Amino acid sequence: MSGKQWHERKTAFRPSAGLSSWSKRLEARKAEKAMKTKEREMKAEKEDERQRRITIIKDRRAAKEEKARYEKMAEKMHRKRVDRLKRKEKRNKLLNS
Questions:
Q1: Where are the alpha helices (DSSP H) in 1-97?
Q2: DSSP secondary structure letter of residue 17
């Protein structure tokens, strides 16, 4: 082996050596808090957008199902009766909501 030390030289344990000042810690906390707030805000915005898309898709599906149901009814019944039922269901929907 060469004459170098294999391990690092050990130094005395000084716990206060790595501590930062109180003002620095406050600044760091403030920056961290601001970042977390911005992050939460962005996540909430993203979730709102996702929920909006989901509701649009659900509304479209419901409208499609309703249309298919009325078409199926129209095959069995007269057109005027189907129209009457549509109006009646819309009235009930408005009263119940």
A1: 22-76, 79-96
A2: T
DSSP 11: -
The answer to whether residues 82 and 73 touch, using CB atoms and an 8 Å cutoff, is: yes
Residue 62, both tokens: 């419901």
Rg over CA atoms, the chain: 34
pLDDT for the residue numbered 2: 65
Global pTM value: 0.54
User: In the numeric block, which tokens belong to residue 94?
Assistant: 């408005």
- pLDDT at position 44: 97
Give just the sign of the alpha carbon dihedral 68, 71, 72, 73: positive
- Which token pair is 22? 């109180």
Which pLDDT value is given to residue 72? Answer: 85
Give the SS3 label for residue 70: helix
| CA dist., res. 12 & res. 6, Å (int) | 19
- Where is pLDDT greater, at 60 or 84? 60
